[in-house]
From TrEMBL:
Keywords: Glutamine amidotransferase, Hydrolase, Lyase, Pyridoxal phosphate
Description of how the protein assembles with itself and partners: In the presence of PdxS, forms a dodecamer of heterodimers. Only shows activity in the heterodimer.
NCBIfam families per the UniProt record, alphabetical: PLP_synth_Pdx2 (TIGR03800)
Source species taxonomy: Bacteria, Bacillati, Actinomycetota, Actinomycetes, Jiangellales
GO BP: any one term: pyridoxine metabolic process
Main function: Catalyzes the hydrolysis of glutamine to glutamate and ammonia as part of the biosynthesis of pyridoxal 5'-phosphate. The resulting ammonia molecule is channeled to the active site of PdxS.
Gene3D superfamilies membership: 3.40.50.880
Designated name of the protein: Pyridoxal 5'-phosphate synthase subunit PdxT
Organism: Phytoactinopolyspora halophila
Pathway: Cofactor biosynthesis; pyridoxal 5'-phosphate biosynthesis
Keyword Hydrolase in annotation: yes
Pfam families cross-referenced by the UniProt entry: SNO
Amino acid sequence: GPTIGVLALQGDVREHLAILETLGARGAPVRTSEELDGVDGLIIPGGESTTMWRLARSFGLLEPLRKHIHDGLPAYGSCAGMIMLADRLEEAAPGQETIGGLDITVRRNAFGRQVDSFEAELDFPVLGEPPMRAVFIRAPWVEGVGERVEVLARVAGRATGRGVAHAPDSEAVTGRIVAVRAGRLLATSFHPELTADARIHAHFLEIVKEA
Ligand code: GLN
């Protein structure tokens, strides 16, 4: 079977590796461009995108990551990983760069500040029933998508707040795009690696197998 790399510079790497294991997939941490050369798909975890960008740059990984993704390496980014895959950012830190590849504009920390997290049930048609229980932590949302990008899920209310600045069912938040796919690139604003639901990872494995 395929080897799924998890970019292991920073963030919740172990959680992604653990989910891959429950699916019977081979996961491998990626810290060098040699390790990147050996994978069939790449997961970019949640964490802090500015730190991930700085580490990727100083490890000499930014250009190799760009090249592999440009050449068609399937990739899935959760939260900070979504930010790393975005072509355009709102609220970027000064000088902050991404890997890019996904024709989307992502707004960092869109739902609120550091303490803000919430959970919501999302209708996620490509995954079927039941709805996805999604954990958002200082999450970005997708502000805009290019024409070849498929919107997979939006916030639709029904959220349980945990220190939420804007109620997730408020007008500003309802309808916000939180999951997208374009070709071999998949991204979610939330963290499926923090729940027992492995359907997003299974979906990504399908994308890798098709590629
Ligand atoms: N706010 C973080 C960032 O900008 C993302 C948060 C997360 O990955 N949970 O990178």
